[in-house]
C-alpha cells in the first residue's frame, strides 16, 4: 500500500510521525511506501539572504524521513510550491496512492499548518481515501489524541452508494482492526423503517465477522447525525470513524455532505473519509 503523508514540519506533525503505535498501525494495514510531502505556499520565503524556502523544507523533512525509514518503510520526500490541498491531492493522484494522511489540530491562525481550512479543502477535493489524524497539545508539546488508529472503527452509514464505498474499505484494515461498530442515524422514522435499518446493519455485521473475524456491534439511532455519531464515538471508544463523502463531478471536486464535513471539521476522533469513485477523464 502506498500513502502520501502530508506534513507542515511542525512539532504537532512530528508527534504523529514519531508515534510508534501509529507507525505500527500503518504497517499492520500493509503500508510499505510512504511519500512524505510538505507544501511551501508561493508567498513564503525563508527570509534569509541566499537561502531558498524549498531547500530549507527539504532539509527539514530529513528527520521525519529517518523516522519512517527506521520503521522499515520505503520513503520518498517531496517539496511542492502552491496551494496545500491542491498539491496534496495532486501528488496522491499522480502516484495512484491508496491513502492520504494529514494531521489536524483544529482551528489556529498559523500560516502553512495542516489544520482547519486546509484539511477541509483536502477532504472536499480528495479522490483518494483520507485519514485525518487528530493531534492535541500536551504539557510536553503535542501527541496523537488516540493511538491504535484502526483498532476500534466506527462506521457511520446512511445506506447510500457513497457509504457503501466506505464500507468496502474495511478489508484494507485487516490486521489492524479488532472491533467495529456499525451505526445508522435516521430521522423521525417509523418502527418499520427502524427495523429495516437494523436488519441491514445486521447483514453488514455478519459479513464483516466472516471476512475479518472481528467483533462487530450495531446501533440504530434517530436524531441529529453529527451529534449521534460523536456520541457513539465516545460510547464505543472508537479510535477512528469511517465515513463516506458525497459528491460527483468530472472535475473531481467533492461537495462534502454536511455530516461528513462537520465530522472532519469539528470532530475530535480520527476520521477515515472515503470519497466517491472518480469519474474517468475523457
Give a written overview of the molecule:
InterPro entries: Rossmann-like_a/b/a_fold, Universal_stress_UspA, UspA. There is one protein chain. This protein is of the alpha/beta class. The chain has two domains: 143 residues, HUPs (Rossmann fold, 3-Layer(aba) Sandwich), CATH 3.40.50.620; 115 residues, HUPs (Rossmann fold, 3-Layer(aba) Sandwich). Helices cover 38% and strands 25% of the residues. Strands 1, 2, 3, 4, 5, 6, 7, 8, 9, 10 and 11 form an eleven-stranded mixed sheet that branches. Helix 4 runs parallel beside helix 5 and helix 8 packs across helix 9. The protein starts with a strand and ends in an 8-residue tail after the last strand. About 9% of the residues have low confidence.
Topology (SSEs and partners):
Layout: E1 2-6, H1 11-18, H2 20-28, E2 33-40, H3 53-70, E3 74-81, H4 84-95, E4 99-104, H5 116-125, E5 130-138, E6 141-144, E7 152-156, H6 161-167, E8 179-186, H7 191-212, E9 215-222, H8 225-236, E10 240-244, H9 258-266, E11 270-274
Parallel strand pairs: 1-2, 1-4, 2-3, 4-5, 7-8, 7-10, 8-9, 10-11
Antiparallel strand pairs: 5-6, 5-11
Q: What keywords describe this structure?
A:
9 helices; 282 residues; Rossmann fold; single chain; eleven-stranded mixed β-sheet; alpha/beta
| Architecture (CATH level 2) name of the largest domain | 3-Layer(aba) Sandwich
Provide the CATH superfamily of the largest domain: HUPs
CATH class of the largest domain: Alpha Beta
Enumerate the spans where pLDDT stays under 50 for 5 or more consecutive residues.
46-51, 106-115, 248-255
Derived structural class: alpha/beta
Largest sheet: 11 strands, mixed
Q: Encode the helix/strand succession as letters.
A: EHHEHEHEHEEEHEHEHEHE
The whole-number mean of residue pLDDT values reads 81
Number of H/I helices: 9
What Rg, in angstroms, do the CA atoms define?
19 Å
The name CATH uses for the topology of the largest domain is: Rossmann fold
Helix content: 25-40%
Amount of beta strand: 25-35%
Number of domains: 2
Distance between the termini: 27 Å
Protein name: Universal stress protein
Domain UspA: 2-132, 150-275
Pfam families: Usp
Family: Belongs to the universal stress protein A family.
Amino acid at each position: 500500500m502506498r500513502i502520501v503523508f502530508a506534513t507542515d514540519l511542525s512539532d504537532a506533525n512530528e508527534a504523529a510521525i514519531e508515534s510508534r503505535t501509529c507507525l505500527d498501525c500503518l504497517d499492520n494495514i500493509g503500508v510499505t511506501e510512504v511519500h512524505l510531502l510538505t507544501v511551501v505556499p508561493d508567498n513564503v520565503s525563508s527570509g534569509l539572504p541566499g537561502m531558498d524556502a524549498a531547500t530549507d523544507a527539504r532539509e527539514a523533512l530529513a528527520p521525519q524521513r529517518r523516522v519512517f525509514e527506521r520503521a522499515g518503510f520505503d520513503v520518498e520526500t517531496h517539496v511542492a510550491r502552491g496551494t496545500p490541498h491542491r498539491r496534496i491531492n495532486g501528488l496522491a493522484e499522480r502516484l495512484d496512492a491508496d491513502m492520504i494522511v494529514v494531521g489536524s489540530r483544529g482551528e489556529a491562525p498559523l500560516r502553512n499548518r495542516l489544520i482547519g481550512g486546509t484539511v477541509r479543502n483536502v477532504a472536499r477535493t480528495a479522490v483518494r481515501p483520507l485519514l485525518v489524524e487528530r493531534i492535541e497539545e500536551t504539557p510536553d508539546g503535542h501527541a496523537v489524541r488516540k493511538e491504535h488508529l484502526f483498532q476500534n472503527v466506527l462506521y457511520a452509514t446512511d445506506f447510500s452508494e457513497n457509504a457503501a464505498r466506505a464500507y468496502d474499505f474495511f478489508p484494507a484494515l485487516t490486521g489492524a482492526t479488532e472491533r467495529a461498530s456499525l451505526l445508522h442515524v435516521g430521522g423521525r422514522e417509523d418502527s418499520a423503517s427502524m427495523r429495516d435499518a437494523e436488519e441491514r446493519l445486521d447483514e453488514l455485521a455478519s459479513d464483516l465477522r466472516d471476512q475479518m473475524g472481528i467483533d462487530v456491534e450495531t446501533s440504530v439511532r434517530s436524531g441529529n447525525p453529527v451529534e449521534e455519531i460523536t456520541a457513539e464515538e465516545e460510547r464505543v471508544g472508537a479510535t477512528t470513524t469511517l465515513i463516506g463523502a458525497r459528491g460527483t463531478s468530472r472535475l473531481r471536486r467533492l461537495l462534502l455532505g454536511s455530516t461528513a464535513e462537520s465530522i472532519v471539521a469539528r470532530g475530535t476522533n480520527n476520521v477515515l473519509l472515503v470519497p466517491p469513485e472518480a469519474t474517468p477523464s475523457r
